[in-house]
Amino acid sequence: MEKAAGSPSVGGSYPQKNAEILSSQYGINLFLAGLLLTFAWAVHAVGISKSHLLSYLITLMLIQLLWMLWYLCRSCTQRRLIRDKDTHAGARWLKCGITLFAVITLILDSFKIGYYIDFSNCLSPTEGIFPVTHAVHTILQVYFLWCHAKDIIQSFKTLERFGVIHSVFTNLLLWTNGVLTESKHQLNEHKERLITLGFGNITIVLDDHAPQCNCTTTTLCSIFSQGIYYLYPFNIEYHILASTMLYVLWKNIGRKVEHHQQHKTPFKFHGITVGMIFGLIVLTSTIAIVVVYLIQIGRSKSKSELALTMFYLHAISVLALMCTAGIVALLIYRLEDRSLDNSKNPARKLDAELLVGTAAGSWLLSWGSILAIICAQAHPKYTWYNLPYSVLVIIEKYIQNLFIIESIHREQEKVNDDVKTLRIVTISRGSTLSLSPSYKEIYNGRAACDSGEVPCLFKGSICGRENGGGGGAKEETSQENSSVMHSASFYSSNSVTNNKRRVLKNIAAFLFLCNLSLWIPPAFGCRPEYDNGLEEVVFGFEPWIIVVNLAMPFSIFYRMHSAASLFEVNCKT
Q1: Considering only CA atoms, which of 269, 413, 262 is closest in space to residue 347?
Q2: Which among 123, 209, 395, 526 has most CB atoms closer than 10 A?
């Protein structure tokens, strides 16, 4: 009988849980079908062409467009209703970041349209339809995320689960398509570079997907074809950011939230000058290193070896500084006694899982390089720099993940209420005057004396109005001295806390710029895992290239996601 009595509550949640499971399985099958189609095109499978892959992606985007239009129209008709919002999801800086990547993605789409026009005689119509559809999809999706990323959907929940998960996996497939296209281009360049490093025993077979006809305007075709591959990194980041924001929206469907005030934490440059200066030095030097690397690599054996050595030395220095900064931040956390916020938060949980999950890509490459150095029979001089570089990559990500995950789980420090309402008591002609200067005034030492009646509460002295007090005055004076000591103690402890906070903010700002710096080299073709050639000799060319092509996208995403998380940490600290 007790079980029967409890069954309605269980049954009430079962349909929604069932809908969540069904929608997730639908999304996974959608993704796997597209993944196999992408793989079939990549390996030139018989009967599978690029037009088949693009047709599939166009269909998915059109379905998502219809769902987003339906959702937007329904939201307009219900705009007067009060909706629950997830204050942690869809932060403004995240929306600004995805908007920037979307704008560059639109430029990429315009380049693809121009490329199609120049080669229209021998390209499938789907290659012209795809960038147009993708541009419309990008514009509407960014608008949708700006307006509804924080929504907690409570109506049409089953239908919305399928619509949102369809959008998540559509973006993941578009991300996969971008990663594959960009990787094939990098691989062709890499095969040509290996000759200059003396690895002539590796078979060079270019994977050519170029059109089989002449371009109508040679100069424009060259601009479009080269520009497309330089813009792909931004397109890749756009789709992975969109998929993560949509995933949080999916997890929030039907969620019950506690209504509490969310304190806004705006980003401020004040107090992070040191971290910004060192970070900008790293960013500037990294850009210079990448430019020199791309110019020198592949020119000759000596220039290629010099470029690799220069890259490794710079990366080792940056990673060592990042490890040191992360260790200092963790030591400061160990000295503090602050509780962690373990409340249910899909956005925060996803951030932590993505940090650890995508770091595995770099760890895989690093362990592969370490094994290759240990097992290789011949060791060119520049390959020895790869050993400390690979070890530091593993350690740095380990430390940085600990710092970020603890930072986003730490509760914000709250000022005690009795400190905010610290009362200063003085005697004036036998009567008690109670005055309450603000916390800010007490902290800065600016509690003013009004016409000589209000005491100045600093430096262990009280300036008050004189009167003949007697014994009662002594008691009041004793209470005043007690409050002076209390405020002085608070001032001292708060000063130490502020110093710690300032150090943490500078560390977060420094690591933020360092992660942006380390995102640039692999995103724009500076990939020593491809170019040093040692791993290909030990593991074999094809196996190692497969490992790099699978792991590198996660490594690139890790840096951008870490930068975004550190920006949030800086705002929160």
Answers
A1: 262
A2: 526
Mean pLDDT of 106-120: 88
Residue 319, token pair as written in the block: 């990673």
pLDDT over 60 (residue 439): no
In angstroms, the CA 508 to CA 34 distance is 39
Q: CA–CA separation, 563 vs 282, rounded Å? A: 14
Closest CA to 15 of 150, 131, 191, 158: 158
Could you tell me the two tokens for 93? 């800086």
Alpha helices, DSSP H, located in 90-125: 92-118
Q: Where are the alpha helices (DSSP H) in 340-470?
A: 346-375, 386-409, 417-420, 439-444
pLDDT band at 480; cut points 50, 70, 90: low
How much of the chain is helix, strand and coil, in % rounded to 5?
Answer: 75, 5, 25
Q: Report how far residue 256's alpha carbon sits from residue 164's, in angstroms, rounded to the nearest whole number.
A: 18
pLDDT higher for 215 or 310?
310
The structure tokens listed for 159 are: 């239908």
* Helix, strand or coil, per DSSP, at residue 424: strand
Q: What is the Cα–Cα distance from 386 to 312, expressed in whole angstroms? A: 7
Considering the chain, what percentage of its residues have pLDDT values greater than 70? 71
